[in-house]
Amino acid sequence: MDDIDEKKGNDNTVVLSKEVGHGHDLHTTAHDADASAALVAGFTGELDPAEAARVLKKIDRHILPMMMVLYAVQFMDKTTLGNSANLGIKTDTNLSTLQYNWLGTIFYLAYLIFEWPQNLALQKLPIGKWMSLNIFCWSVFLMCHAACSNFVGLFICRLGLGVCEGSITAGFMISTTMFYTHAEAARRVSFWFLMNGTAQIISGLLSFAILHSKSSMAPWRIFMLTTGAITFIVAVWYFLYFPDSPMNARFLTHDEKIIAIERIRSNKTGIENKFWKKEQFIEALTDWKTWFFFVFAALDNVPNSLTNQNAIIIKSFGFTTLQTTLLGCVGGVVEIITLYTGSLCIKRWPNKRVVISVIYFLPNIIGACLILGLPFSNKTGQLVSLYVTGVGTTGFVLALAWVSAVNAGHTKKTTVNAVFLIGYCLGNLCAPQMWKAEYSPRNTIPWIIILACYIACPIIMVMIGYGLHRENVRRDALPEMEEEESYIDEVQADGTVVSRKLDMAFADLTDRQNLKFRYCL
User: Fold this and answer.
1) Residues 481-501, mean pLDDT to the nearest whole number
2) Cα 411 to Cα 409: distance, rounded to the nearest angstrom
3) Residue 471 Cα distances to 6, 409, 467, 519, angstroms
4) 0.85 exceeded by the pTM?
5) Which class does domain 49-476 fall in?
6) How many angstroms separate the Cα of 11 from the Cα of each of 35, 487, 489, 502, 509?
7) 465 in Cβ contact with 521 (< 8 Å)
8) Which end of the chain is more exposed for a tag (fewer CB within 10 A), N or C?
């Protein structure tokens, strides 16, 4: 057979040069190759488009609803503090404005500290099982809020939530690239991220219902117990049914698993590799785009502090507690519409992420300018402007999918994801501290800072896009060389090394090492 080569030897170690792609055959082992390599090695057939489409629909039916539900629950849980502020938590636990802001900060401080350990665990452990364990712990911490009567107790519970939170978005970023092509991933990220808007609506309606309850228990305590119980149910559901990768997805047959893996061959990123690679880690930290994405994530999430401030801001316009709970739902509707239209745009123009992101940031800039420019007495104008600033969420969602799409090599990808989410944490960690009591109710200083971030983020996106475009042009201009091939070496019981042909996409090469890799824009 042309794709099988037998040779004797025990040394299968492969030392990768900085760039692979100029006429040199690559031999690798199961240790160094992608985890899916053994399953697809030797596969030389052509995928039937109808079969590939059928498998995609099957993947969507099984994992996309789970991801969407969990993201809704996660966001609902994360924003319990903001909703509880409207339900009386500040009064019942004697929280000052500074202490309330620290409850928002400690969540992201814990997230920041544990983001790298969480990403390391996601690489080495089964993703589905690790996420379910974190969801379970999350539910326990959430329900424990109901037993708190002071700042210290709430502080500890919020810290616990931040520790667990680090596994969810990072796990979703990895899982999405395991099952979907780059073009498909951008839309799927939009789908599970738009559930944040759904969660805002559910939280608002739940808060409204709880305020009408006749229970002697404080409304915010009922709210915490209810959301915690929902999260616990989701944890059990994930443990039983969420796959760790296409290789062990129980809803796929053996042939469907091969099709699922071959579908994402064009990504040039493989599925996963459970072994941590120092050289990929170093490459991730010395890659310029890692830090551009980091700065983008940090600045884009400074305005995210509005999550815990929206109810307070809306109530400052003179609305009652009941009216505030319902008006909070409008922001959720805006986010759903925004992200859904964004997903349609990326489907229609799959390689125009930068342009689409910049367009969606423009309403945010306009909204922030109106909030600063309109008289505070113009409550309607202020409220509408506040809702308009929710449109730019699409920019962050596209960046979230983009950062995984433009990095290859499993250790590198998880490292870059971690750096991106650390930036996300820093923005969310620092931002609550700008909402000081002396700035209320106009909050001019916080809104100036938010406006500056809204202006900087699209500029950074354009810079990243320009840099990646130049690299694509450089690679396209490289001279044509003899086509190289890659093989996975397997040692048999008698010491014979059997080499099976393997697509370079499954050799766990980084985007720098694989010169056939092209950056999506």
Assistant:
1) 56
2) 6
3) 38, 18, 6, 8
4) no
5) mainly alpha
6) 20, 14, 10, 19, 20
7) yes
8) N
Burial tier of 505 (Cβ tally within 10 Å: 0-12, 13-18, 19+): buried
Q: Do residues 31 and 13 lie in contact, with contact meaning Cβ atoms separated by under 8 Å?
A: no
The average pLDDT across 352-381 equals 92
> Looking only at Cα atoms, what is the longest distance across the chain?
84
486-491 and 496-502 as β-strands: parallel, antiparallel, unpaired?
A: antiparallel
pLDDT at 3 over 50: no
DSSP per residue over 62-129, as a string? Answer: HHHHHHHHHHHHHHHHHTHHHHHHHTTHHHHTT--HHHHHHHHHHHHHHHHHHHHHHHHHHHHS-HHH
Distance CA 149, CA 218 (A): 11
- Closest listed residue to residue 202, CA positions, set 71, 316, 309, 305: 71
Residue 280: CB partners within 8 Å, gap ≥ 6? 409, 410, 411, 412, 415, 510
- Segment 373-382 mean pLDDT: 90
Beta bridge partners of 497: 7, 491
Q: Is 470 helix (H, G, I), strand (E, B) or coil?
A: helix
Residues 190-211: pLDDT tens digits? 888 888 888 888 888 888 888 8
Give SS3 for 491: strand
Bridge pairing between strands 26-29 and 486-491: parallel
Is 403 in contact with 424 (CB distance < 8 Å)? Answer: no
pLDDT at residue 488 is higher than 80: no
Residue 321, number of CB atoms within 10 A of its CB: 15
Amino acid at 60: D
Q: Are 426 and 298 in contact (CB under 8 A)?
A: yes
Q: What's the token pair of residue 96? A: 């000052």
Whole-number Cα distances in Å, 353 to 64, 183, 402, 484, 521: 22, 10, 8, 32, 6
CA 416 – CA 78 distance, rounded (Å) = 24
Q: Is 399's pLDDT higher than 60?
A: yes
Tell me what pLDDT residue 502 has. Answer: 54
Average per-residue pLDDT for the chain? 82
Q: Would you tell me how many other CB atoms lie within 10 Å of the CB of residue 325?
A: 25
Distance CA 148, CA 281 (A): 41
pLDDT the model gives residue 7:
40
What's the confidence (pLDDT) of residue 221? 92
Coil, strand, or helix at residue 382?
A: helix
SS3 call for 136: helix
Contacts for 142 with CB less than 8 Å, ≥ 6 apart: 77, 80, 157, 161, 224, 227, 228, 231
